[in-house]
Amino acid sequence: MKEFSVYDAARACDGIYNGGEAVKGQMVKGVVIDNRKVEDGFLFVPIKGERFDGHDFIGAAYEAGAVCCLSEKKLETQKPYILVKDSLQAYQDIAEFYKGLFGVKMIGITGSVGKTTTKEMVASVLEQQFCVLKTEGNLNNQTGVPQNLLRLLPEHEVAVIEMGTNHFGEIRSLSKMARPDFCFLTNIGQAHIEHLGSREGILKAKSEMLEYMREDGRVFVNGDDEYLWTLKETRSDVTTFGIGTQNDIYTTDIREMGLEGSDFTAHFDGKEMAIHVPSPGRHMIYNALAAIAAGLALFMEPEKIARGIAGYTPISGRMCIEKANGLTVLNDVYNANPGSMKAAIDVLSYAKGRKVCVLGDMFELGDKAEEYHRQVGSYAAKKGIDEILCVGELAKGIYDGASERCGNASYFKTQNELLEKIEGHIHSGDTVLVKASRGMKLEKTVEYLLH
């Protein structure tokens, strides 16, 4: 971390410093919100959460070597601390200040589906030429984004920052910290529609990123998405990518090769290049196109862009293809919504031999949750999946939708019930998709199948 003083931290978050004058000038060597990660010289920021209040661990942070702590209340201590109105806001303000110490090119990525995969694909391309900081895992929320910005180092040339939301105003605060040079919007689906009301509301929430884009910045959107295309119609700084030839960056000659991925020809500025995407699914083509757009925006040579896409590897739980015990398991358990469920079922349909899917609850879908689950079940049956195993309270809708379309479906109220009987539904040589919202914790099912 690039060090800054305790006094700099107090000024950045508009806090009131309490303590000796000598400590004001001491340098902060790290900023954390988990007292277990405090080291000598660190600044500890106590965040109030649903289950814990970080203020309860201020004492432990000092014992671990914290040079200073933030606090929303006056402390009975001789230790130095910074009094703030809101610790979370202060954490974000310090991250915004810290980001401003660097001249790094900033790429922001948001959307309903595929943010993390797009982030990984973009980073894989840019790493062919630049020193890149990218969001760890999917730390894309109000604490995750500042955590990633505080990882910036002088050697970084580009940062790829994922931004997630389920309420209005959240993307705005994330973008204010990051101040992106380039804004990427992957798509507008049904994820978090419970809180955002409609797809129009989701577009509005995701578009908050553009409010803090740099003046000479540029917006990159999936032009095959009817909602995102409206940005092209209303702004002059939008570049579109997609399969349709109406886009600025588009494809021809798509050749899908099952679980081996796909090949296509990308077209841009009157030029073209051959691309191999090593992960299956048509949705991965969109992620690759976003990565192409990022590479071109930073004036990379086409050969390096193509090499970066071909070298992409998925992170755990994001359509990882794992093999063991005679099974091929499509591990896609990290998250789910209707769009990503259908895309994953499409991938499963590419497999040779017997195809089985284990599908669990999708959360935050609001009043239409039952309808969306039925649609997914119906879609799986339509795609000819041999067995559809449905697990969870909401997944009863998946079972009903599959059964109505004469799909071979079974229902299990809990994951434990599923695991007790799953061996009767899985056979050697099967390809098995496992997918649900994160809260279902279906990685337990993946582990059972593999081990």
Distance between the termini: 40 Å
- Strand residue percentage: 15-25%
In which range does the helix fraction lie? Answer: 25-40%
List low-confidence stretches.
none
Q: Report the principal-axis shape.
A: globular
Biggest β-sheet strands, sense, barrel: 9 strands, mixed
CA gyration radius, whole angstroms: 24 Å
Individual helix count: 17
The number of distinct β-strands equals: 22
Description:
Helix 13 (about 340-350) packs parallel to helix 14. The two termini are about 40 Å apart. Helix 10 links the parallel strand 12 (about 220) and strand 13 (about 240). The protein contains 17 helices and 22 strands. The mean pLDDT is about 95. It is α/β, with parallel strands linked by helices. The strands form 4 sheets. The chain has a 9-stranded mixed sheet, sandwiched between helices.
Quick summary of this structure?
This protein is of the alpha/beta class and 451 residues long. 34% of the residues lie in helices and 22% in strands.
What's the layout of helices and strands?
Elements: E1 4-5, H1 6-12, E2 16-18, H2 21-24, E3 27-28, E4 30-32, E5 42-44, H3 58-63, E6 68-71, E7 81-83, H4 87-99, E8 105-110, H5 115-126, E9 132-134, H6 144-149, E10 158-162, H7 170-178, E11 182-185, H8 193-196, H9 199-206, E12 218-222, H10 226-234, E13 238-242, E14 249-256, E15 262-268, E16 271-277, H11 282-297, H12 302-310, E17 320-324, E18 327-332, H13 338-349, E19 355-360, H14 369-382, E20 387-391, H15 396-404, E21 409-412, H16 415-421, E22 431-435, H17 443-450
Helix pairs in contact: 4-7, 5-11, 5-12, 11-12, 13-14, 14-15
